[in-house]
Amino acid sequence: MWTFSYILLALVIWQDNVALCSSIVTLSLYAKEYRRPVVAYSCVSCEPVRSSVKNTLEIDQNGSDVSYYVDIQLGSDVNSVYSVVVDTGSYDLWVYSQSCTNISCVSHNQFGPQDSATLEVYDGKDFSIDYGQGKVSGIVATDYVELAGYNVSMGFGLAEDVADSFNAFPVDGILGLSASDLQINGNPSVIAVLARDGLISREVFAIDLGTEDDLDGGSMSIGGVDTSRFTGDISFVDVANDQGLWIVAIDDCYVNGEAEGFSDKLALIDTGTTLILIPSDDALQIHKDLVGSNGIVRTDGTNYVIACNTTTELAFGFGGVRWAVNSSDYIGNPLDGDGNCLTNIQGVSVNGTSTWLMGASFLKGIYTIYDKQNMRVGFASRGTGGNDIYDDGHPTGSLSAEITPTFHSLSASTNSFAAISMSTISAGE
Ligand SMILES: *[C@@H]1O[C@H](CO)[C@@H](O)[C@H](O)[C@H]1NC(C)=O
Ligand SMILES: *[C@@H]1O[C@H](CO)[C@@H](O)[C@H](O)[C@H]1NC(C)=O
Ligand SMILES: *[C@@H]1O[C@H](CO)[C@@H](O)[C@H](O)[C@H]1NC(C)=O
Ligand SMILES: *[C@@H]1O[C@H](CO)[C@@H](O)[C@H](O)[C@H]1NC(C)=O
Ligand SMILES: *[C@@H]1O[C@H](CO)[C@@H](O)[C@H](O)[C@H]1NC(C)=O
Ligand SMILES: *[C@@H]1O[C@H](CO)[C@@H](O)[C@H](O)[C@H]1NC(C)=O
């Protein structure tokens, strides 16, 4: 049997029709007795060294580099803390609703009128999102959201019906950080709200996920970059299409410095998915070259098992610059003491043969910048003393025009993706 491992797939794969009714119902005008969130997650670096840079959020995880989250506060109760996945691969902010009885909800922190005197829900306005992980649906609400020192009133989802597959992850919801101004639930995204309210002058954020071995944890900065988290210059690549996601052209993949010869591939830059997911033919080719004459130990076309001590150089190219993936990041969980390991690169198609999903296994080794204003993604080496091109001392000019995103499917059908996620977590042999 192959080892069971949790893999978070927080990318949007479909959207149902969103009702656009908007009568506001205030659920509770009177705050009930203060309720502390019931679940406290163990974390790797619970008190990370705080960056000296303002507008910075600590990114944490509970070990194993599976899911990365930040803490936000919701509502009028200043001690109501919710851990949400940092997810550049989806659009919406949602948390588990207090009225949800599904296992995924009740085993995590839930939010509702008991937690906030300022919560408003929109009567009859629903949201429904399919993630690679499973489906989430619920109602749309408005309340105060505090993150990185900002406290804004905005719309988000209260999840009422959540797939059991979310239960495994130590989070209370998802913070979608797509390149779109709008969430699927119809409200402006958190970055758009911060810009609209004049709290940030640039629609830019940057992420250093970090690994479980990093003592100071990960970090996200909002409104600019954090020069204490990267070194050298930022290399930018323009967003390749108008889908409202961080999708860029990928030059190629390099094994031991040799180009693999892939062309016309796009990469979805997705901090919310644990692994690197690429179409099966491409995954097979890369693994063959990674192991050389040692051979692939076994594969079912999705999962790959190779020698744990493989140290072949692997890199991905963006905008003419190659970004290496440490072998400790592409080698995954060991199997039963036989010196063989699963890899963190799976043969999975998220959008036909054209798109590679670059998840945390790749992103944790680098610093990434999400520049909505210029619709580009920046890549930089982790380190300190980076060159902050955003700190030019000049006025920032007008913010980007609001775009109307076309929400889309990233997989042929929900069914085919469900089959894939099953083999992801329970590949038996
Ligand atoms: C992380 O969370 C999972 C699921 O809740 C749990 O099984 C695992 O023990 C946690 N890991 C650590 C290191 O706390
Ligand atoms: C955010 O502002 C609201 C309205 O003033 C307030 O009720 C709430 O406590 C604030 N949240 C935090 C975390 O300060
Ligand atoms: C969640 O709970 C609702 C209400 O009880 C139920 O209808 C739905 O089937 C549940 N969803 C899952 C995934 O169990
Ligand atoms: C690769 O990862 C290992 C283990 O985390 C670390 O010791 C090593 O320094 C890393 N190599 C590079 C080039 O970053
Ligand atoms: C990897 O481990 C195998 C035994 O599992 C050993 O035969 C081989 O020499 C090792 N390779 C390297 C590069 O250390
Ligand atoms: C998916 O692939 C199709 C065809 O290659 C392309 O037109 C579409 O933009 C892609 N979707 C995304 C989200 O990149």
Automatic annotation (TrEMBL):
Record has Hydrolase as a keyword: yes
GO molecular-function terms, A-Z: aspartic-type endopeptidase activity
Swiss-Prot/TrEMBL GO biological process terms: proteolysis
Active site: D87, D270
PROSITE patterns: ASP_PROTEASE, PEPTIDASE_A1
Keyword Coiled coil: no
The entry's keywords: Aspartyl protease, Disulfide bond, Hydrolase, Protease, Signal
Span of domain Peptidase A1: 68-380
Disulfide bonds: C100-C105
Cleaved signal peptide residues: 1-19
Family (UniProt): Belongs to the peptidase A1 family.
Name of the protein this chain belongs to: Aspartic peptidase domain-containing protein
Gene source species: Lipomyces tetrasporus
Lineage of producing organism: Eukaryota, Fungi, Dikarya, Ascomycota, Saccharomycotina
